[in-house]
C-alpha cells in the first residue's frame, strides 16, 4: 500500500512538473518541439479554399478598426491614412460556421501562456484540413469579426440607438468612457499595435505563397522561409488568442487583471522583421533570375550592345560610369553605344604579361572609334586589399574599366554562358550585342592584330593555317624568326628528363651534320625550349610555349578534326612527358612526337638515311616515325586546363581512332607566372 501511494504521488508530481515546464517554457520552446506539436494537428492542406479573398476582407476590417482606435485614443495627434478598399472575388463564400467555432475558442479565455497555448492547439485541430496560411487567415478573421464589431459599435453608439444597445451588451461603454479610456490608453495602444504587426506577418505569408508559383531554382531562399511558416503560423495564432483575451480584460470589470502582451509583441515583431528580410532576399533573387533570363535572351536576340552591358552589370539605378584608363576619368556608358566591344574578363589574379597580350589590340584599334575594350574584373566579394589590387591593375590598362558587376547576374552569366573559370578571356561582341567569339584571347595570344577583328570568320581562316608553330615560338628567341624565314628544318624539343634531352641533343646534332644531310643541301637547326645556356630551366619561356600550344588547341578543339588539329593534340599530350619534339620546316610542322618514338627515329638514322636520299628527308622522316609509333605503344595523356573556357565532353585520341578516357587531376608548380597556372 505504501509503495502504491508513493507511485501515485510520484506520478502526480511528474505531471505537475511537466505542466509547469510547458507553462514556463512557452517562449523558450524550440522550433522543433513546436513543429512536433502542431504537425500532430495537421491532416492535409485543402488548396481549394480561397484564403486570399478572406484576407482581403480581414485586412479591410482591421486596417479601419485599428485606425478608429488610434483616432479615438490619440485624437487629433494621429495621422489618418487613406485606406484603399480591396474587393474579394464576387463568388467568395465566407465560412461563417468555421469562423464562429474559432470565435468560441477565442472568447472569454483566462489570461496565461498555458491557456493561450492550449487554445492555439485547439484552433489548429479545428483547422486541420486547411493550408498553413489559411489557418492563420481564418484565426485572424474570427478575431476581426469581434474586434471590428467592437469598434464599429464604439463609433456609432452616440448616433445610433441600435448600436448603443448592442454596444452595451458587448461592454463597449466600459472601455470608451473618457476617464476609463485615458486610464487604459497605453494598454489599448499596445493591443492595437500588436494587431497591426500580426496582420503584417500574415500578409507576408501570402506574399511567400505567391512566390511559390515561380521556379524554386529562381528563389533558393524561399524554401528556407516556407519550411518555417508552420511555426510562424503557430506564433501568429497564439498572438491572436492573447489579443482576444486582452480585449476581454480591457472591457471587463477587472481591467487591471495582469495579462502582459510584451512577450507576444517581442516574438511577433522578431518574426515580422525576419520575414521582411527573407521577403526582400527572395524578391531580389527572383529579380536577379529574371534579369539573368533577360540577359540570356538579349545575347541570343539582336539588340543594342549597351543594353546587354547594362544587364550584365545589373543596376536598377543609373548605370555606373566607366573609367577611361587613358585619362583616368569616368565616362558615361553611352560611349559603348553601337560599338564593337572586346570584353577583357579576368579575376584580379592576372599578371602584367596577361595585360600585355591585349595591349597591341588597344594600340591597333585606339584610333578607330568603332572598337572599344572594356575590362571586367570578376570579384565575388570586395575587400580593402582587393580594391587596392584592382586600382593597381587598372592603372596599367589604358582601355575602359567597369567599376562593379553583380555576382548573382553578371558573374553567374559570365561563368555559365561564357564558361569563365578563372583564366583571362576576351569576349567579342558586335554592335547588336551578339557574341562573335566567346573567347578570342587564344587568337590574340597567337596571331595578334593579324586575327583582327577576332570573330568567327577570322578564327576559321587562321585555323586552316599550316604554319601554326610560328606564332608560338616567334617571341622566344630572335634566331628562330631568322631560321623560319630561311625555311630551315627546326627541331623544337623539351621535357622533364634531362638525360633524354642530352641524348636527343646529341642525336639531332649528329643527324644535322651527317654527310647525307649536308649533301642534300638540307639545313637542320635544333632549339631546346626553356633550357638556358647554363643548363637551368626558364619557366617563363616554358610557360609561354605551352600557353601558346593550349591556345592553338582551344581555337581548334570544337571544330572538325583535321591533320593540323591532330598534331596540336599530340604535342599537347606530351607536355608532361619525359621528352617530346616537333620537327618543322620554317613554321610548317612536319610531325610532332613523343620522346620515345622521336628519339628512336634519330637512333635508327642509319637504317633510313639512304631512303631519305631517294625519297627526300621530310617524307622519309615522317614515314619512319609513323612505323615506330606502331611498334612503340605508350599511353596518350592530354591535360586540358579546366580554367580555360569550355572544355570538350568527348576527345578522340590523336594517335589512334579511339575515344580517350576522362580523368580529373590537380596540379601546383609552386611558382607564380605562366608556368604555374597551366595544367
Keywords:
4-stranded mixed beta sheet; 679 residues; disordered C terminus; disordered N terminus; elongated; single chain
List the helices and strands and how they pair.
Layout (H helix, E strand, L loop, with lengths): L1 H23 L6 H9 L11 H24 L21 H11 L6 H14 L5 H25 L4 H9 L2 H5 L1 H6 L1 H27 L10 H29 L11 H39 L4 H9 L8 E3 L4 E3 L8 E7 L5 H14 L5 E7 L6 H11 L5 E2 L5 H11 L7 E5 L5 E3 L3 H7 L8 H8 L5 H5 L4 H8 L3 E6 L3 H16 L1 H5 L4 E5 L10 H18 L6 H11 L6 E6 L2 E7 H9 L1 H11 L1 H15 L42 H4 L2
Parallel strand pairs: 3-4, 4-5, 8-9
Antiparallel strand pairs: 1-2, 1-5, 3-6, 6-7, 8-10, 10-11
Helix pairs in contact: 3-6, 3-10, 4-5, 4-6, 5-11, 6-7, 6-10, 6-11, 10-11, 10-12, 11-12, 12-13, 12-16, 17-23, 21-25, 23-24, 25-27, 26-27
